[in-house]
Design brief:
heterodimer, A: 114 residues, mainly beta, 7-stranded mixed β-sheet, 4-stranded antiparallel β-sheet, 0% helix, globular, B: 114 residues, 6-stranded mixed β-sheet, 5-stranded antiparallel β-sheet
């Protein structure tokens, strides 16, 4: 069964450092998403991406965050200067269609900022 | 601002009995609702969904009920099995908004006891 893969599974970084989280969405999916879950809290939408540009972003997705699809397969989330409160599990997801269509999530990348 | 609320952080049910997980929402623009299931160290996986034009959707052991007037939905699992032990997230979306992100509840940890 096709799956969304994410790397790394866990990254520990110092505050102020740049972090890049990588995702390989399902090959025939056209819409890509990043969500995050801070420990003990709900899964929160960060950003959606379609046709090589951001479709929508939440208030969380400020100037410190960026997304990119550098080639035909990878979808990356970059945090320019990490803060302690960026520590969370980051989930990548993809879907065939937008809106109400079912998302397929990756297993997540745990980011720990010290 | 919790637009999707799951008021029970955990629920313990005996194997073979019915599990009922509840979810309330406040945003009347939501018109599509999904349940995701999450095991530890994995991403959320889609379980079942329902459109606001329906009040019930059934898939095997899983049934989702939607009460639009009460802005309430529930997931019924019957009979409950040990493999059902997981965190269940309720999610909602306004399908007319394009590539919008899902709004998740905080999740309910379902524990199936033998």
């Amino acid at each position: 069964e096709p799956e969304v893969t994410q790397t790394p599974s866990h990254q520990v970084t110092q505050m102020g450092q740049e972090v890049i989280l990588r995702c390989v969405p399902i090959s025939n999916h056209l819409y890509f998403y990043w969500y995050r879950q801070i420990l003990g809290q709900k899964v929160e939408f960060l950003v959606s991406f379609y046709n090589n540009e951001i479709s929508e972003k939440s208030e969380i997705f400020d100037d410190q965050f960026s997304v990119e699809r550098p080639d035909g397969s990878n979808f990356t989330l970059k945090i320019r200067s990490t803060k302690l409160e960026d520590s969370a599990m980051y989930f990548c997801a993809s879907s065939v269609e937008s809106g109400a269509n079912v998302l397929t999530f990756g297993a997540g990348s745990r980011l720990t900022v010290l | 601002d919790q637009q999707v609320k799951q008021n029970s952080p955990s629920l313990s049910v005996q194997e073979g009995r019915i599990s009922i997980l509840n979810c309330d929402y406040t945003n009347s623009m939501f018109d599509y609702f999904l349940w995701y299931k999450k095991y530890p160290a994995e991403g959320p996986t889609f379980l079942i969904s329902i459109s606001s034009i329906k009040d019930k959707n059934e898939d095997g052991r899983f049934t989702v009920f939607l009460n639009k007037s009460a802005k309430h939905l529930s997931l019924h699992i019957v009979p409950s099995q040990p493999g059902d032990s997981a965190v269940y997230f309720c999610a909602a979306i306004s399908s007319g908004g394009g590539a919008d992100g899902l709004t998740f509840g905080k999740g309910t940890h379902l524990i199936i006891q033998p």
